[in-house]
Design a protein that fits this description.
Elements: E1 9-14, H1 18-29, E2 35-41, E3 56-57, H2 61-64, E4 71-74, H3 79-91, E5 95-98, H4 101-106, H5 108-118, E6 122-123, H6 134-140, E7 147-153, H7 156-168, H8 172-181, H9 190-193, H10 196-210, E8 220-221, H11 229-238, E9 241-250, E10 256-265, E11 278-285, E12 289-296, H12 300-314, H13 323-326, E13 338-346, E14 357-363, E15 368-376, H14 377-382, E16 391-400, H15 412-415
Parallel strand pairs: 1-2, 1-4, 2-3, 4-5, 5-6, 8-10
Antiparallel strand pairs: 7-9, 7-11, 9-10, 11-12, 13-15, 13-16, 14-15
The chain binds L-homoserine.
Residues 130, 155-157, 184-186, 192, 197, 297-298 line the site of L-homoserine (HSE).
C-alpha cells in the first residue's frame, strides 16, 4: 500500500510512440507506483492505437489546463513543441519528466531558470543513455573535484550500425535501416549518424558532472558519416574497434575538455566490448579510479525504465539540485589542448606537416592514405576541413597528448589539396 504522504501521480502523457506506449504498458501492470496515465496527447488522431480511445486527445490544453494532472511526461519527437509544453507545465507547477535530449540540451539555461523560479521538479534520466542511471549518479555521487573524466558510447543507433557493419558485413544503409526498424534511431537519423544526438547528451552530462552549461553547437563533434573502409582496414590490422565516443576530461587548469568524435579503442578499454544498441559510460574519479556503467541505450522499454525511475523519484519530491552549478565553481570548457588523431583522405594530398606533428603514415592502397599525428584542439574547433565528406578523423586510443609539438600557424584547408 502507498504511504499516506506519498504523492499520487496523475499523468498527462505527450506522445504515444515507441517509448510512450512502452511506458503506458508498464504503468498498466505496475500498480505499486501509485501512478496513472489520465490523458495522452497525440499528433495524429486517426492512427490506430492500442489503448482506449477516450484516453487520447490532440489538444495539449486538455492536459496542461487539467488541475487533476500533476505530472507531465513529455515523450514527443518535436523539440520545439516539447519546449513549449515543458515550459508551460513547469510555470504552472506541474512536475515534468522528459526524454527529449535535443530540447533539454538546446534550452538548458531557460529550463534551469524555470526550475529556479517555480521550484518544480524536472527530471530527464531517460534523455542520456536510456536505461543507464548516469545523470542521477553524476548529480548525487561524484564531487566535482573527484571527477576526472567521463567517456561513453551514448548513442545506441550509431553503435548498432558500427556493430552490424563490423560483424555482419552490412552496408551502412542496411544497418541504418535495421536501427530504424528496431526503433533506436531518431526520426531524423542524421541526428544519430552525425553525432548530434551524442553531443546533446554530452551537453546534459556536462551540466551534472561539472556545472558546465554549454550549447551543443559549442562542443566539437562529428559522427560516423565519413568513416571509410580504409579506416576499418586500419582498425582490423591494429586490433582496434571504431566507436563514437563522447568525452569530457578535467584538465590541470580546472577547465574541461569535451567533444564527441569517433575513436579507435583497444581491447583493454571497457567500451571496446559495448555492442549494438548498448551504451557504456566510464567515469574516472580521483580516488575510485574507473567505474563502468553498461546498459541498453535505446529502445522502448529501456527508455521507459528510466522514465519510470523518474516517476518513482517524483513520489518523494526529488529534484535535481544542480550541485556543481550552485555550490561549486562551474568548470569552463577548455579551449586548447592536444589530441592524437588519425586522418584519412582520398587521392593525392599534401601531408599537413604544419598542422600535425606526424607520427606515422599509412596507406592501404594508393587511392586512400592516412596520417597519424598530434593536432591542436583549436584547429578542430575553428576549422571544418576535417568534416568534409572525403575526410575522416578518428581519435587514437590514447587521445590526449602530453607532448606539445611546435605547430606553425597555418590554414588546414591549404594543406589538403587533392
Ligand atoms: N536515437 C537514440 C540513440 C535514442 O540511438 O541512442 C536514444 O536516445
Amino acid at each position: 500500500m502507498p504511504e499516506q504522504n506519498e504523492t499520487k501521480l496523475n499523468i498527462g502523457l505527450f506522445g504515444f510512440g515507441v517509448v510512450g506506449e512502452s511506458l503506458y504498458r508498464v504503468l498498466q501492470t505496475n500498480k505499486s507506483l501509485n501512478a496513472q496515465v489520465r490523458k495522452v496527447c497525440i499528433k495524429h488522431a486517426d492512427k490506430k492505437r492500442n489503448a482506449p480511445a477516450e484516453l487520447f486527445t490532440t489538444d495539449p490544453q486538455d492536459l496542461l489546463r487539467d488541475d487533476n494532472i500533476n505530472v507531465i511526461v513529455e515523450l514527443i519527437d518535436d523539440a520545439d513543441a516539447a519546449y513549449l509544453i515543458v515550459s508551460d507545465a513547469l510555470s504552472n507547477k506541474k512536475s515534468v519528466v522528459s526524454a527529449n535530449k535535443k530540447m533539454i540540451a538546446e534550452h538548458q539555461d531557460e529550463l534551469l531558470e524555470l526550475q529556479r523560479t517555480y521550484h518544480t521538479p524536472f527530471l530527464y534520466e531517460s534523455a542520456c543513455c536510456a536505461s543507464i542511471p548516469v545523470i542521477r549518479n553524476l548529480e548525487e555521487y561524484y564531487d566535482n573535484d573527484l571527477l576526472q573524466g567521463i567517456s561513453g558510447i551514448v548513442n545506441g543507433s550509431t553503435n548498432y550500425i558500427l556493430t552490424r557493419i563490423a560483424e555482419d558485413g552490412l552496408t551502412f544503409e542496411a544497418a541504418l535501416k535495421l536501427a530504424q526498424q528496431e526503433g533506436f534511431a531518431e526520426s531524423n537519423p542524421a541526428l544519430d549518424v552525425e553525432g548530434i544526438d551524442a553531443v546533446n547528451k554530452l551537453t546534459i552530462l556536462l551540466t551534472h558532472a561539472y556545472g558546465t552549461v554549454a550549447l551543443p553547437k559549442e562542443i566539437v563533434h562529428t559522427g560516423i558519416q565519413n568513416l571509410h573502409a580504409h579506416d576499418a582496414t586500419y582498425a582490423k590490422e591494429k586490433g582496434y574497434e571504431i566507436k563514437l565516443v563522447a568525452q569530457a576530461k578535467k584538465l590541470e587548469d580546472g577547465s574541461v575538455a569535451a567533444f564527441v568524435l569517433p575513436q579507435f579503442l583497444k581491447k583493454d578499454n571497457q567500451l571496446y566490448n559495448v555492442k549494438n544498441e548498448y551504451n557504456g559510460v566510464i567515469i574516472e574519479s580521483g580516488l575510485a579510479d574507473k567505474q563502468f556503467f553498461y546498459g541498453k541505450g535505446a529502445g522502448g522499454f529501456p527508455t521507459a525504465s528510466a522514465v519510470l525511475s523518474d516517476l518513482s523519484a517524483l513520489r518523494y519530491d526529488y529534484k535535481y539540485e544542480y550541485k556543481k552549478l550552485r555550490y561549486q565553481e562551474p568548470a569552463a570548457l577548455a579551449q586548447d589542448f592536444y589530441l592524437r588523431v588519425y586522418v584519412s583522405f582520398d587521392g593525392l594530398f599534401h601531408v599537413p606537416h604544419e598542422l600535425f606533428e606526424v607520427i606515422e603514415e599509412w596507406s592501404s592502397n594508393n587511392k586512400r592514405c592516412s596520417v597519424i599525428g598530434i593536432i591542436r584542439f583549436s584547429k578542430l574547433k575553428d576549422e571544418s576541413w576535417w568534416k568534409k565528406k572525403n575526410t575522416s578523423l578518428i581519435l587514437m586510443p590514447d587521445a590526449f597528448a602530453d607532448f606539445v609539438p611546435e605547430l606553425k600557424e597555418s590554414s588546414a584547408s591549404e594543406m589538403f589539396m587533392v
